């Protein structure tokens, strides 16, 4: 079995038809979507790697759990099973359900952030920073420099630079820092983990200044796997045990159960402080639903509770990481510039290195994602200048050092053969990269999270994205 892709630890009981489209049909769909892969209809997408959020395949046990959902408005037994699962696996005493992760981010931000606050973190995430800014805060990136270097092989590129964090604390004062925002893994860096040693050091530093740590735990199980694989002293621990230790070094967490917990909807906010929990429950009633359902149906809470237990099963997480690595190896072997090491939930192609001739304000990653869809029907996600948004002070586009397209692998959905098709599509576009001699410009730009609903047009009338399709 050495060198071969391992078999998945599940068998298929139901299938869903995938749409197979022509290049001409994809060109029409792309034009109708304003050259924004976010606005494509799923019926026009062959292999959808836009996100791993809510796109996972639930197990037979999760589907069975749906049938036991208690839909009582108040005090449903499904909530208490859900609460117990979160406490047992993540360790937070107070559990507030939300409809998904950004609901938890909204509640947390409204509870803790005021105008003039500063929130350090290990690289921004789109919705997290948006909530922080909408409540008057300013995000500060304190991740290690290696995280911004796609080719660097540092095993824990999600680590926080302690010197950067301490410098910020002294500059703005600890009283103006409501919490340190720690992602595990770091999505915008390509799914890169933080080490246990680094988080422990961050905990020691923040404790001296009485600053809480809030974990983005959406993919913390994947982070726990990398700790066990890469960090000395953790090889003999279970993934479940590493997860608990990771969370034990934090004061709370926001969670999108649509990721690691293998559910199609759901989330939670977990905290240790009783006063913050009371405040959060009051806000949940206003924005999400009663504190014992928080925007989820009882059946959703049952599916999440079961998914939490499945997420830490060794064979499940191993197969998940191995599938992502399999795609990464194929692309790396073909010379595609990627973010290294390969992350936990996605393979990220370096669009800036692929299309170095395109100005950043012509959005190389957005252009490359559109070209990939046109060529193969594969939908990826842009994670570059479009996602970064505009600087609130200058009004200009932010230009993050990482200009990526993210091939995000849903859990338990696609087979090895699908990964082969994706690899062929990316390699095909890479070979034609010189033909992508012009990019895209905005024709509609929303004020917040523009990448979801923006519309574009090619900057040149003879763009490869608009040339007449020639079908065989």
Automatic annotation (TrEMBL):
Its cofactor is pyridoxal 5'-phosphate. Keywords: Lyase, Pyridoxal phosphate. It comes from the Bacteria. GO terms for biological process: aromatic amino acid metabolic process. The modification N6-(pyridoxal phosphate)lysine is found at residue 259. Residues 48-424 form the Aromatic amino acid beta-eliminating lyase/threonine aldolase domain. GO terms for molecular function: carbon-carbon lyase activity. Gene3D superfamilies: Aspartate Aminotransferase, domain 1 (3.90.1150.10), Type I PLP-dependent aspartate aminotransferase-like (Major domain) (3.40.640.10). Pfam families: Beta_elim_lyase (PF01212). PANTHER family: BETA-ELIMINATING LYASE-LIKE PROTEIN-RELATED, TRYPTOPHANASE. Belongs to the beta-eliminating lyase family. This is Tyrosine phenol-lyase. It comes from Nonomuraea solani.
